[in-house]
Write a structure and sequence with these properties.
With 418 residues, the protein is of the alpha/beta class. The chain has 13 helices and 16 strands.
Length: 418
């Protein structure tokens, strides 16, 4: 099954790599129209997955990731249209030079080839990957979680319909229409046809892919994210940033997990954080350093942190609290507990901001901004296939350029090497 799928994907990728920008853009616009026109069918399919998920005991966070609604479908269509407006990276020339012997060199962007994308709970990933793959000339084999299978059937059907309508191979985007987990292992061994594996899910999925894949793996999407409230921070302005980072969409990887508060402002700021966020259902895990600043008895929304709480990606309305004495302690804590996804500082001190930016080596570092901005759409990249937290070959949101590689092109006048 997967060998045939891989063979078809490789053939499609070679055809798509030669498609014009105009044809690829038209496919994206057609797909956006199909998605809007077929929203009722998509929502029915998604509703079946959501209901099955509730019956199977999925958490509220996973249900939120799984759910589509009118607003989210409109956003997916808007992302596809935005992708069509962005420059096509394929074929771009850069690093051009002429050698002393007259040989002209440049790098030229080319597609990666065939992407194997393994993800959980998020049908929006199906459309994000499809759109990015089409624009960048890559084929994709998708393996969504069993909880999204009905949604993915509907969405991939629309993608393939748009491809065919534009004269491109339907096999450009395929998905594994089976919940059999053994097929994930089969995909990881399909090295003859698949060029890169991109897992989007929890730590166990990432570890499984790293340990079992015969194909290079780009890991990311696991975020234990921090904001440090410096003693110089504008506390009134900091509170809405923390509120946004924690509550705007708590189930995603760039949602806030821990705030570190300078001791000089802890007495003023920590009770304000608890009061402001508890009203929206946030509960707190308090390091012992915070207890003297939170009152006795503790507010009902606060409980002492457990030994693993600062190493937990909450993906829910839970926030860790810790008091620190300065940047040395902040950087040590982040180095010990962060997944180096999205970490930030709230400060009015330019030197502290500069030090934080230089010494915190996360995929995205923020000064006076919510961690929720670490997103392909928010960074102006269109959609993203994942947020990489590794160093090779990309870091941060993987948009259009990040889904290409390059080849050297040498142009001569019948040059020979001496």
């Amino acid at each position: 099954m997967l060998t045939d799928m891989g063979r078809r994907a490789q053939s499609a990728s070679r055809q798509l790599a030669l498609a014009s920008t105009e044809k690829k853009n038209q496919t994206l616009l057609t797909l956006a129209d199909y998605l809007i026109d077929s929203r009722a069918d998509v929502l029915v399919a998604n509703g079946k997955d959501v209901e099955a998920g509730r019956q199977n005991g999925l958490s509220d966070a996973l249900i939120d990731r799984l759910m589509l609604n009118d607003k989210r479908i409109d956003a997916l269509a808007a992302d596809l249209r935005h992708l069509a407006e962005l420059p096509d990276p394929v074929g771009e020339h850069y690093d051009e030079t002429v050698l002393p012997n007259g040989l002209r060199l440049h790098k030229q962007r080319v597609p990666l080839g065939v992407l194997g994308v393994i993800y959980e709970s998020r049908p929006n990933v199906t459309m994000d990957v499809a759109g990015l793959s089409i624009k960048t000339g890559n084929a994709a084999i998708l393996r969504g979680g069993s909880e999204t299978i009905t949604s993915n059937r509907a969405l991939v059907g629309l993608v393939q319909k748009a491809l065919v309508a534009s004269g491109l191979p339907a096999e450009t985007v395929q998905f594994i229409d089976s919940p059999d987990r053994a097929l994930v292992l089969d995909l990881l061994k399909l090295h003859e046809y698949v060029d890169i594996i991109i897992p989007r899910g929890g730590a166990q999925l990432h570890q499984f892919c790293r340990e079992n894949s015969q194909i290079p793996v780009i890991t990311g999407g696991l975020g234990i994210c921090h904001l440090y409230v410096d003693q110089s921070a504008n506390l009134d302005a900091s509170l809405p940033v923390i509120h946004n980072a924690k509550t705007q969409r708590p189930s995603v990887c760039n949602a806030l997990d821990t705030i570190l508060v300078h001791r000089a402002v802890a007495a003023d700021f920590l009770p304000r954080v608890v009061d402001a966020l508890a009203g929206d259902g946030v509960t707190f895990r308090a390091d012992p350093s915070t207890i003297p600043f939170l009152g006795n008895p503790l507010p009902s929304s606060v409980q002492p942190a457990g030994p693993d709480d600062f190493d937990t990606e909450w993906v829910s309305l839970v926030l860790g609290l810790k008091v620190v004495d300065g940047l040395d302690e902040v950087i040590a804590h982040i180095n010990a507990h962060s997944t180096f996804h999205s970490d930030g500082i709230l400060t009015e001190d330019a030197d502290n901001a500069a030090r934080f930016m230089n010494e915190v080596d996360s995929a995205a570092v923020f000064v006076n901004a919510s961690t929720r901005f670490n997103d392909g759409g928010q960074f102006g990249l269109g959609a993203e296939v994942a947020i990489s937290t590794q160093r090779l070959h990309v870091r941060g949101p993987m948009g259009l350029r990040e889904l290409t590689t390059y080849k050297w092109v040498a142009q001569g006048e019948y040059h020979v090497r001496e």
